[in-house]
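Priority: low. Protein: Cell division protein Cdc14. Input follows.
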Amino acid sequence: MEALLSTAFDNLSSYDGPKVRKGLRQVEGLLAQICLSTDPPRSASSSPTKNGSPTKQTEDNTSSSGKENEAPRKDLAELTRDPAFREFFKLQEGFEWNVASRLISTLDRLLAGGSDGQNDLLILSALDLIQGLLLLHPPSKTLFSREQNMNLLLDLLEPYNCPAIQSATLLTLVTALIDTPRNTRAFEALDGLLTVTSLFKSRSTAREVKLKLVEFLYFYLMPETPTIARAGAGATRDVLQRSPSKLAGAFNGDSQRRGSRFDTDAVGLELSTAEKQELLGRHLSSVEDLVKDLRTSAPFGGVVS
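Result:
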């Protein structure tokens, strides 16, 4: 695994677009090997054959869905028991092999490369991979407590970026903020609320981006929960089960006993909905309506106090 990551990192550090694309695909391939089952799809393995050829039913299923050759995804309980995932998780604990930090550096170089179709596609691919990596290794979220890294996401929300990049950045931002109050405070300190609300109020912002912005504002106004790192250290099982990553089991064992280099303690940093409503209200006049709707509809299944 180290050899594959080393090759991918070499490509990701390049200024050559095709090499960067190759590095992104290598990372994607590694994550696919970890997250997808090696067992063949049930429908393909159980389909009868005649004279060595697929039956008409198999052909019809393949042509209609186009997914017969896709490996099934591992469920989360299976993933945390998987040796390859546990090895990957351990490697992510150190800076040398942490993939998210390398992708952030790549994203920074891509953003400096200007806006064109091919470059935009690379940025989108990097953002998608960062989202997945933050879910697979939640301690890497704390990389976005650093001003430089959080500013990178805010730069990607600027109006000169295409709507697809803005939408993908909002999803990445949610992934980086969820269960990580320290990151949310960094977002606020860097005028992230001003950036988001200005984009929302701008007439030039695409409709699909505005919908993502509304979803983001609902998410932001939710009361905050303790960080996963704190929960793994000594919280009840119920708290761990509420973790959106569902990978709390991966925090037990050796990695917790030796301590992660990315662990942070966010005691006292959590804000309530009322406190965040006050902050957001400095930039947006309709926050009270958002909070009322949040209490009524509970879009994330949580309780708003």
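The chain is about 65% helix and 0% strand. Residues 12 and 120 are 15 Å apart (CA to CA).
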